[in-house]
Amino acid sequence: MFIGHYALGLAAKRVTPGVSLGVLFASAQFADILWPFLLAAGLEHVQIEPGNTAFTPLNFVSYPYSHSLALLIVWGLALGWIFGGGQRRNLAIIAALVVSHWGLDFIMHRPDMPLYPGGPKYGLGVWNSIALTVAIELPMYIAGVWIYLRATRARDGIGRWGLLLLIAMLLLIYVGDALSSEAPPSVGALTAVAATGGVLFTAWSWWADRHRDVVTGR
Ligand SMILES: [Zn+2]
Q1: Could you tell me the distance, in angstroms and rounded to a whole number, from the CA of residue 213 to the centre of ligand 1?
Q2: Distance between CA atoms of residues 158 and 174, nearest Å
Q3: Distance separating alpha carbons of residues 213 and 192, to the nearest angstrom
Q4: Do the strands 152-154 and 212-214 form a parallel or antiparallel pair, or are they unpaired?
Q5: Residue 105 alpha carbon to ligand 1 centre in Å
Q6: Is residue 94 within 8 Å of residue 20, measured between CB atoms?
Q7: What's the average model confidence in pLDDT over 18-45?
Q8: CA of 97 to the centre of ligand 1 (A)
Q9: What is the mean pLDDT of the segment spanning 10-28?
């Protein structure tokens, strides 16, 4: 799953208005932000295998630290504690976003999502159908964008256009993924792109969100 994770981050702004969208995005996507660094360190493994599922040419051989349910609970509590500003609701929402990554990937992936390192793996394999994948994820994204746009208001051009460009960019990448069956040239290239994307979209969303005000009383 890709934009579905961002959808939850956008929607969460409604219930944690004091938390930056950058933190909410990084939480929902934490598993995928951590993943390329663990690949580079040789602690997790992926293979490029065109046709692995209809949607992705990747075989997620092993990712116990970034993508197991047990570790995501640990990461979620840690992130919530660090970025929750001492508020229990923020901590709970941030932790829930981090853990939600497992639930959403579980729906999409083949049975490759571990419960805990070395533990059994699960997955419903919706990625076997591009149509079904898009039918689930696109409405989620539209709803998330709508909720975020109603919960905040642009203070200036960066808040308006910076945000809209980010939303469009994520959508374009997603549509490109859905339409093309092209595999990345190498695991190294995949790792570099994934690491860059994770950092870029966290920083971009934090920056755009800073230029928007929370709308109260709606
Ligand atoms: Zn993931």
Answers
A1: 30
A2: 23
A3: 34
A4: antiparallel
A5: 6
A6: no
A7: 97
A8: 12
A9: 97
